[in-house]
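Standup notes, structure subgroup. Blocker cleared on the carboxymethyl coenzyme *A input:
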Amino acid sequence: MNENIKVLAPAILTLEDKDYSLPTYIGVEGEKAIDITKLRSQTGYVTLDDGYGNTGACESAITYIDGEKGILRYRGYPIEELAAHSRFVEVAYLLLNGDLPNSDQLKHFSTHLNQSSIIHEDMHHFFSGFPRGSHPMGILATMVASLSTFYPIPEELDEATETQIVANLVSQVRTIAAFSYKKSIGEPLVYPSIKYKYTSNFLNMMFASPVRDYQLDPDIVDAIDMFLILHADHEQNCSTSSVRTAGSSLANVYAVITAGIAALWGPRHGGANQEVIKMLEQIHAEGGDGTEFINQAKDKDSGRRLMGFGHRVYKNFDPRAQVLKQHCDKLLNKPGVNDPLLDIARRLEEIALKDDYFISRKLYPNVDFYSGLILRAAGIPTNMFTVLFAIGRMPGWLAHWREMVHGDQVTIYRPRQIYMGETLRHYQDITQRT
Ligand code: CMC
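Run returned:
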């Protein structure tokens, strides 16, 4: 147990007329927990917590969220301060190492990322093997898993190898992402360049071509960098829990990260900002300005919801959405930006923020509302949105993997179940079955 965890009075559980004393703890931010690690051996009972909504699966020192108060902190630093002063590479260092880097450490980390950005040349052939129109998340998952074969990991992981693996994953994920996009549109691959910083390098690989220079727009670079910062970690979400689950078997870390990518792919997790754009396209196709859609979203029988509004954890505001809105406004107000979907989005936001239905249910725009718009304004195709989320989340996944493998002991994740299937029955010969 972490020495910062305070012990409270034990909880008394009465089962079948017998009292059991269970240790209780309080974390550094006041979260209270009942320790049930010995529950089954002492009582014969397990807990039932579908979706793990009440289960603390680990102790962690990486990210703190208070959904009621709209707090998100990485390693203790408020997201608003990081958003105002930091860049993605610095935030990645912070998540991975626990502290903000000094200037030498940042320079060294940044150079290491740049030097690790090229994927093995033989991996290029793989991109040609995928069918046209393959989903870039499928390509990303496959390519990240295949890094394990090009960069084999020795059985005993030393510090230098671990540092290299982390640099490979944080850096190469954006190379793989850009290459998969280039393949999907039939254009030649653009290699990473020492000339550019992390986010500019990615945008250049996405949008430059041998016959067309890509003019980096500093507002777009800033907005995408901010998107990455805001998505860099979110404690024990579905993909991070998948990373911890796969990692607890001590599997190869490239395979472990692939588990996170697979979990992120789903529309209930990484795919929500795509849904915002789909909604806007639908409203546009139906010829409305959003008023009719909002009326339908308020009617439960319509089956429609205002995508990008509401949040399971943040009940007053989503701190990430507040930061991203400023970048979104800046991009959308730029001269020459003329996208009918962006006008619909503005109108939806305006109506919903004044509408009693949304106000009374505390339904505010979430991070996905603005991130979808920003990615679209930056020219990122909709099917790449989740891939960008994966680029942002990579330092978070790796920080959790590191925290777990360097913990006191790695306990393999192995939940129990309540069996509800057939009870004992005996094998019948096929001729006797009905
Ligand atoms: N549009 C219309 N009504 C809504 C919406 C919405 N987007 N969200 C919730 N409501 C209503 C819901 O019908 C219910 O009404 P009533 O009290 O009359 O029954 C009330 O608000 C509470 O809804 P809930 O489903 O209990 O709220 P929840 O906290 O369980 O759900 C949510 C959160 C995100 C699933 C939901 O707000 C939603 O479906 N939003 C749209 C999808 C979306 O934007 N998802 C991305 C979330 S951010 C992901 C991330 O952090 O990565």
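Discussed briefly. Residues 159-184 form the longest helix (26 residues).
Next: hand off to the docking folks.
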